[in-house]
């Protein structure tokens, strides 16, 4: 595994071909579990959170969470406000995936647990369809419960 390979995978995250982008994310998630080679690309992962494309926002969120273990520069803490916006993303699936990813962030960044809990408590799910709102509320309660245990 080389830094050039990691850079190539980061570039593929935004591919118009969904299979290519998803495969790149999967590869980078594997890399991130084993090494900090993807960590230098945190800025690019944060940039994905700004995308109009909901798939790219989710990819960015998952990669940020996977690299929380390597975050010696506290980039996640410094930019948590941007991450928290995804809890109430316009797309409910993005919000659900964000809450899921926050579980991993809380594991690796225990100093953020209170901040995560507060963001969850303040999240507004009222604008979601009746079919999605209960699922988001369950996700929130599940994570709040897990945060309280630790």
Could you give me the name of the CATH homologous superfamily? Leucine-rich Repeat Variant
Shape: globular
- CATH architecture annotation name: Alpha Horseshoe
CATH classification class: Mainly Alpha
Number of separate strands: 0
Q: What name is given to the CATH topology?
A: Leucine-rich Repeat Variant
Number of helices: 9
Low-confidence stretches at least 5 residues in length (pLDDT < 50)? none
In N-to-C order, the SSE pattern is: HHHHHHHHH
How many domain units? 1
Oligomer: single chain
The biggest beta sheet reads: none
Percent range of helical residues: 55-70%
Strand residues, percent: under 5%
Rg estimate, integer Å? 15 Å
Q: Average pLDDT, to the nearest integer?
A: 95
Distance between the termini: 35 Å
Describe this structure in words.
The protein has 150 residues and is mainly α. The protein has a single domain, classed as Leucine-rich Repeat Variant (Alpha Horseshoe). 67% of the residues lie in helices and 0% in strands. It contains nine helices and no strands. Helix 2 (18-34) runs parallel beside helix 4 (54-66), helix 3 packs antiparallel against helix 4 and helix 4 runs parallel beside helix 7. The longest helix has 17 residues, at 18-34. It is globular and about 45 Å long. The relative contact order is 0.10. The mean pLDDT is 95. This is SufBD protein. It comes from Solibaculum intestinale. InterPro entries: ARM-like, ARM-type_fold.
């Amino acid at each position: 595994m080389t830094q050039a390979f990691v850079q190539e995978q980061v570039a593929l995250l935004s591919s118009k071909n969904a299979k290519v982008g998803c495969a790149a994310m999967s590869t980078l998630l594997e890399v991130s579990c084993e090494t900090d080679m993807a960590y230098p690309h945190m800025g690019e992962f944060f940039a994905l959170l700004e995308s109009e494309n909901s798939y790219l926002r989710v990819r960015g969120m998952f990669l940020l969470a996977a690299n929380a273990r390597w975050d010696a520069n506290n980039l996640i803490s410094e930019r948590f406000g941007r991450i928290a916006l995804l809890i109430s993303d316009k797309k409910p699936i993005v919000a659900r995936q964000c809450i899921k990813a926050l579980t991993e962030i809380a594991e690796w960044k225990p100093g953020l647990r209170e901040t995560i809990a507060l963001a969850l408590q303040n999240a507004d799910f009222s604008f979601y369809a009746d079919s999605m709102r209960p699922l988001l509320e369950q996700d929130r309660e599940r994570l709040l419960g897990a945060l309280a245990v630790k």
